[in-house]
Amino acid sequence: MLFWVLALLILCGFLWHYKGQLKITDITDKYIFITGCDTGFGNLAARTFDKKGFHVIAACLTESGSTALKEETSERLHTVLLDVTDPESVKRTAQWVKNQAGEKGLWGLINNAGVLGVLAPTDWLTVEDYREPIEVNLFGLISVTLNMLPLVKKARGRVINVSSIGGRLAFSGGGYAPSKYAVEAFNDSLRRDMKAFDVHVACIEPGLFKTDLSDPVKTTERKLTIWKHLSPDIKQQYGEGYIEKSLDKLKGTTSLVNTDLSLVVECMDHALTSLFPKTHYAAGKDAKIFWIPLSHMPAVLQDFLLLKQKVELANPKAVGLS
């Protein structure tokens, strides 16, 4: 009996793997639109999908990013300057993409553009510190999606939203995690709404990756700028060496940081080209073995493990002192 159970499990595993390998055909007549292509995941995705034969339309924020990408890709790839937080820029771009794609519509929309914003304790921040990542990561993503959706529906294509493990666990104060939690919710509602139109919606949740987005030097500079303007009370509570001690703590987590950006692009590729794409993709060893499993654990365990990475405050009871 045990033998037949094992044989059945092995057969099911084989069929599941085989199913995941089945791909679409006629890639060369399909258009895809990718945001955030100046650097990082978006840049690598644009170059990768151009080589595969897709008609790639790569949205860059800067002229320099656009120029550099054109130099590394074929004539088939087009770039467009786009600020996802500017409604008029998004509308103009959507119309331009419509003119390019024509009756074929848009097979793939990859919402990749994003910013980290300020990562700092919540009581250091103002509402303005939350605004930038929420405007870019959430409202920018929604704006692009709503404007491109008619083209995706025409092609019965795919929408791929790049979220983060920060959409599963809030590992720091600031607007990044709230924006990614909201992206997850938007992704889920969009996925269900688009099923009737044969549009598949997928969410990619990268772990910690070494990109311009997560540059520790820039992150520290932003923290130091905020520190200079904090009240004496808060500075006394946290202690003068708090930021330096936090950096020392972070050095112990470098083994969790992924350097191979292709892990994320491989998820994009499967979501774009598989006959049976997944609804969620975890990218990076840390996401798969730590962050995603931890997100399913009780809050008391999440707090215990994440607080171990926090620096002990100098004098948390120093409230109302000057």
Quick synopsis:
With 322 residues, the chain is of the alpha/beta class. It is 52% helix and 11% strand.
Task: Set out the fold topology.
Elements: H1 2-21, E1 31-34, H2 40-52, E2 55-60, H3 63-71, E3 78-81, H4 87-101, E4 108-111, H5 127-155, E5 158-162, H6 176-194, E6 200-206, H7 216-228, H8 232-238, H9 242-251, H10 262-273, E7 280-283, H11 285-295, H12 299-307
Parallel strand pairs: 1-2, 1-4, 2-3, 4-5, 5-6, 6-7
InterPro entries: NAD(P)-bd_dom_sf (IPR036291), SDR_fam (IPR002347)
Organism: Delphinapterus leucas (Beluga whale)
Signal peptide: 1-20
Radius of gyration: 22 Å
Secondary-structure arrangement, i.e. CATH architecture = 3-Layer(aba) Sandwich
Order of helices and strands: HEHEHEHEHEHEHHHHEHH
> Which class in CATH terms?
Alpha Beta
Explain what the structure shows.
The chain is of the alpha/beta class and 322 residues long. The chain has a single domain, classed as 3-Layer(aba) Sandwich (Rossmann fold). It has helices spanning 2-21, 40-52, 63-71, 87-101, 127-155, 176-194, 216-228, 232-238, 242-251, 262-273, 285-295, 299-307; strands at 31-34, 55-60, 78-81, 108-111, 158-162, 200-206, 280-283. It has a seven-stranded parallel sheet with strand order 3-2-1-4-5-6-7, with helices on both faces. Strand 4, helix 5 (127-155) and strand 5 (158-162) form a beta-alpha-beta unit. The longest helix has 29 residues, at 127-155. The model has no long low-confidence stretch (mean pLDDT 92).
